[in-house]
Design brief:
By secondary structure, the protein is an all-alpha fold. Helices cover 63% and strands 0% of the residues.
């Protein structure tokens, strides 16, 4: 299983999950919800996800932090400011919310499994290896940050 750690870029994982949700949705009838409500909910949740992810990305860029999730060993900057005071993983949280918005738009309850699968995969194969690398590189400072700031929300 270690071979799967930080192997696939998280945005690609989100895209694959989204495509799987679309494929599964084709096999089920949508819930009988007003289209306007469905679209509004999807835009609110998905839009919030995009905003959270972009905020995390821009914070990384502004501080010169390593943005390449496949090269976690290259991280030299420890980001704890901005949105990183609220969540340790705003980019992954944002992708999850975007998938939740997409599930709302698809309006098939089975599609709610997509964001769950994304969270499980990203936690196991991306976040935990990143945390190990951060702990090795930043030691007690990372441990204190991890105790004070939630992994997701």
């Amino acid at each position: 299983m270690q071979r799967l750690e930080h192997l696939v870029p998280p945005p690609l994982v989100a895209l694959i999950v989204g495509l799987a949700m679309w494929g599964v949705a084709r096999a089920y009838a949508p819930l009988d919800l007003p289209v306007g409500l469905r679209i509004a909910l999807a835009l609110i949740v998905g839009g919030a996800g995009v905003a959270v992810a972009v905020t995390g990305f821009l914070t990384f860029r502004r501080l010169g932090a390593n943005i390449d999730p496949l090269r976690i060993d290259r991280g030299e900057v420890f980001v704890t400011s901005g949105i990183y005071r609220t969540t340790r993983n705003p980019m992954y949280l944002g992708m999850t919310l975007a998938l939740c918005g997409y599930a709302l738009w698809l309006a098939r309850p089975i599609c709610a499994l997509g964001p769950v699968a994304f969270v499980a995969y990203i936690t196991w194969f991306q976040i935990l290896p990143e945390e190990r690398a951060m702990r090795t590189k930043f030691g007690a400072a990372f441990d204190a940050y991890a105790r004070a700031t939630r992994r997701w929300i």
